[in-house]
Amino acid sequence: MRRAVAAALAALLSPPLALFAAPAGAEAVVEGEAYYLERIALPPGAVFEATLQDVARADAPADILGRHVVEDAGAPPYRFAIPYDPAALTDRGRYAVRATITVEDRLWFTTDSHHEAFGDAPLSLRMVRVAAAEETAAAPLVGPRWRLVAMGEAPVETEGQREPPHLEFADDGGVFGSGGCNRLRGGYELGEGGQISFGPAASTMMACDDDTMMRERGFFGVMEIAERYVIEGDRLTLIANDAPVAAFVAE
For residue 251, is pLDDT > 90? Predict the structure, then answer.
């Protein structure tokens, strides 16, 4: 009898399990830190931002699901806690965290590799220096064969491919290359501040395996949305909406 009474009292006094479940639309957070290794002191007004992004579509800018912003960022490391709505996550999504530092709306540092948002290891994001547009001479763009090495922040594997995706720029405004299966030829225009735009491109109509064709469609897609470029060392990055959409190395 005593055990029965105790059990009944416990049931009355204890809240239902459902009360502990997070309500729809409740915010969760993705936490971590970001840093850079360059010996550079940021000027006053530098802004650090970490964003949770859905990068499932390689041919379009990432969808931003949450952000953490620090005004007057100061010196690294930068700890962040990005709020997001768990209900916004889908089975088809691919979620990554990106970190940037801007000064007067110009990109100074950015992550240049993919960082899974919900992996097992704590998030530690290394940012790299982005060369200022006026420091980037036009000559390095023209001449080299630029081999594709990343789409967004996801590395591109081309081992065993007959012809890896690449671009070559001519000084007369022509651009040609390969998507990994089909050859392409088109044009490009440069503007102030590292602006770049690609015109319509013609390509051959060969068919390859599904993975190659999917990557090629994504590659052609990022050319359509690219707005700016930066060159640092032997690395060329195409940028749209202040996010890297494709990266190349000079060969």
Answer: no
* Spatial distance between the Cα atoms of 237 and 131, rounded to a whole number of angstroms: 10
* Burial (Cβ within 10 Å: 0-12, 13-18, ≥19) of residue 229: buried
In the block, which residue shows the tokens 């007369």?
172
Q: Are strands 47-54 and 63-70 parallel, antiparallel or unpaired?
A: antiparallel
Residue with tokens 């996801």: 154
At 113, the pLDDT band (50, 70, 90 cuts) reads: confident
**CA angle centred on 133, ends 129 and 136, rounded to 5°:** 90
Q: Which residue has the tokens 């032997």?
A: 234
Q: Could you give the CA distance from residue 63 to residue 196 in angstroms, rounded to a whole number?
A: 22
Count of C-beta atoms within a 10 Å radius of residue 24: 8
> Considering the entire predicted model, what is its pTM?
0.50
The beta strand positions in the chain, using DSSP E, are 28-35, 47-54, 63-70, 78-84, 95-103, 106-111, 123-129, 145-151, 154-155, 166-169, 174-178, 183-190, 196-198, 202-203, 228-232, 235-240, 243-250
Candidates 71, 51, 73, 70; CA nearest to 62 is: 51
Dist CA 112 CA 154 (whole Å):
9
Phi/psi at 70 (5° precision): -125, 115
Residue 44 has a pLDDT of 86
Cα 96 from Cα 216, distance rounded (Å): 22
Distances (CA, A) of 12 to 2, 5, 195: 15, 11, 67
Two structure tokens written together for 165: 């995706």
- How far apart (Å, rounded) are the C-alpha atoms in residues 85 and 20? 17
